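FAQ: What does a ligand-bound record look like?

Like this one, built around iron/sulfur cluster:
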Amino acid sequence: MKEKFILTFSENTTNKPIINDLIKKHDIIVNVIKADISAGEKGTAFVEINATKSEMDKALKYLKIHNVILQSVDKYVHLNSDPCIHCGACTSVCFAGALKMNNENKLEFDTSKCIVCELCVDACPLELFEIHFNK
Ligand code: SF4
Ligand code: SF4
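The answer part, i.e. the structure of the complex:
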């Protein structure tokens, strides 16, 4: 299973190698998408953890024991398709291939291919893409 989290580290924990130890002690893959952490200051990291259910549970418990605040993030892209003028601008930035023009020059959005990179949000002149959070 894969889950994304925002981890918040207190001033007392940012100088400890918690993420390194987390990876060493558990059979998991941690992809740090974005991090803003400086020793001695409160910090945050946006991470994706890939693990079995039992390893995920152990990893999350480990983080909680070390006073890391966990916030699950489950976001997705919503396309407000009705006003779309099918200009194709969004397809040129969608490297995942989720946005394509079909044979009739109409935009098609395959949400299963979307990796939520958010590049389409700025690419659309009509601002038709929105990032939604499940939690
Ligand atoms: S968020 Fe990224 S992958 Fe998803 S539709 Fe937009 S450009 Fe494509
Ligand atoms: S950029 Fe916006 S208006 Fe153009 S095809 Fe994509 S969603 Fe439609």
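Follow-up question: can I read anything off the structure? Yes, for example: The longest helix spans residues 53-65.
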